[in-house]
Amino acid sequence: MLATRIRRWKSVALATAAVLVGLTAPALTATPAAATTTAYDSTYYKNAVGKTGTSLKSSLHTIISSQTKISYSAVWNALKVTDQDPNNSSNVILLYSGVSRSKSLNGGDVGDWNREHTWAKSHGDFGEVTGPGTDLHHLRACDVQVNSTRGNLDFDNGGSTVTNGGGSLVDSDSFQPRAADRGDVARMILYMAVRYEGDDGFADLEPNEKVGNGSNPYMGKLSVLKAWNEADPPSAFEENRNQVIYDTYQHNRNPFIDHPEWVEAIW
């Protein structure tokens, strides 16, 4: 059962002062993520609720680091459950393209889907090792060719259309997912930055304001990821996925799906 979410949406007023002084009206921006409450606030998140900044990040790290780890080979079957098409139980929904594809077409050939690491494996050099390399909170089913196009690129706005990418864009140093997946990607990346802090034998993963991070344990651009989190709130698909991972596989949660406003509270 999904956690109960009660949003207290903040009202937004249009400013008129700028017009009075002859200034150009600013471009529209996403409304900051609204405060939420969930059924887990008094239990799972009890030591994090009410905190901000580094204190909140530290508390969440402690909470979500308690998890069951699975092997990389086990990820195949797990994704068939976590990424299942709600309208067709024989299919999975592919990240970036939004395509519904048969669960049986998992592999490495054209027309197959494979395991996309949204936090690219080379950004921290963790490969496919049990831990960050197998963490379902950032692994998604993805078309083989679209996955190859994304490669290990950082995330940013702009670029040219990705073939069969559902509206995703790519350039020489960055990748922009289709609009419906941008918030999902942001929350997966920021989960990884909180979960892996360098205290478990793996690199300290952190977001930054750069693209072209290469093999460094960083992923950019943070300002863009924050904007994506606000513009594309958690969907029912994303919330269900979080619940399935918690109930069936890792027994930890992505806090930014439950509380998207915590992105701004930390960063």
Automatic annotation (TrEMBL):
Protein's name in the database: Ribonuclease
InterPro entries per record: Endonuclease-I, His-Me_finger_sf
Annotated region described as Disordered, given as residue ranges: 155-175
Keywords, alphabetical: Hydrolase, Nuclease, Signal
Record keyword Oxidoreductase present: no
MF terms in GO: hydrolase activity; nuclease activity
Source species taxonomy: Bacteria, Bacillati, Actinomycetota, Actinomycetes, Kitasatosporales
Signal peptide: 1-29
